[in-house]
Amino acid sequence: MKELHASFIPGIYTAANLSELSTALDLLEKHHVDNLLWTDTGYKPEVSFAIAYTDAGIGIKYFVKEQYTTMVYKAINDPVYRDSCVEFFIGFDADGSYYNFEFNALGTALAGYGINRHGRMEVPAAIVGKINALSNIQFAEGDGMLNSWNLTLLIPFEVFIHHDIKTLSEYECRANFYKCGDDLPEPHFLSWSNIPNLDPDFHLPQFFGKIKFV
Predict the structure, then answer these.
(1) 133: which strand partners?
(2) 77, 138, 122: which is closest to 104 by C-alpha?
(3) Which of 28, 73, 87, 104 is deepest in the core (most CB within 10 A)?
(4) What is the DSSP secondary-structure string of the chain?
(5) Residue 32 and residue 199: Cα distance in Å, rounded?
(6) Domain ranges in the chain?
(7) What is the pTM of this model?
C-alpha cells in the first residue's frame, strides 16, 4: 500500500492569511499524481501535491501543469470534475466510508460522503463553503508551453460532518489524490495511489493509500 507522512504546521490560518499556509506547504515534500489511467492517448499533465495538518484542519497544495485549463463551474457542489480538476478522497473508518473533495482550478468545491460512488450524501453547501482556497493560474504564452496553476486548500475539521475530529496528531487514515478533466479537449484520469481497475472509477477505496499524520 502506498503511504505518506503528513507533518504538522503550527499557526491559525483563515482566508485572510492563506498565503502563509501556501508558503509553508511549498517547503514540504511533493508527492506525484502520476498514475495515468484509462486512456491511451499519452497525454499526461504534470501534477504533484504537498499535504500537512494544522490545529484546525488539513492543508493541501496542488501543483499542475497542463495543456488545457478550463474553469466553467463557479457554484459549490457543481460538477467541477468536468473542469480542470484535482481531487482528495479520505476515509477515517474501517467500514470503507470516505469523503470526496473535488476542486477546479478556481477552487470551486464539490464534496460528498459514502462507501462507494452510488448513493453518496452531498455535504451541504454551507459546510463546503468553510473550505478556504487560494488559486494562482498562469496561462501559457507560447506554442509548446503549458498552463501552470497551483491551488492551496485548507479543509477545516468541521467539514468532516460525519466525524468529530479535534486533532489528527498520530492519526492514520486512507486516502487518494487525483487529477481529471472530463470535458477537456484531452480527458484524463491520474491518481497518486494506483487503481488497477478496468473501468474508470475513482470511487474504489480498496485502492486508497495510507496517510500518517505525524
Answers:
(1) 153
(2) 77
(3) 104
(4) --EEEEEE--S---GGGHHHHHHHHHTSPPEE--EE-S--S----EEEEEEEE-SSEEEEEEEEEES-------STTS-GGGSSEEEEEEE-STT--EEEEEEETT--EEEEEESSSTTPEEPPHHHHTT-EEEEEEE---STT--EEEEEEEEEEGGG-TTS--S--TT-EEEEEEEEE-TTSSS--EEESS----SS--S--GGG-EEEEE-
(5) 22
(6) 3-213
(7) 0.97
End-to-end CA distance of the chain: give it in Å, rounded: 18
Low-confidence residues of the chain, pLDDT below 50? none
The 10 Å Cβ neighbour count of residue 67 is: 15
Inter-residue contact 81 to 114 (CB < 8 Å): no
What CATH number is given for 3-213 in this structure?
2.60.40.1190
**Residue 141: predicted pLDDT:** 84
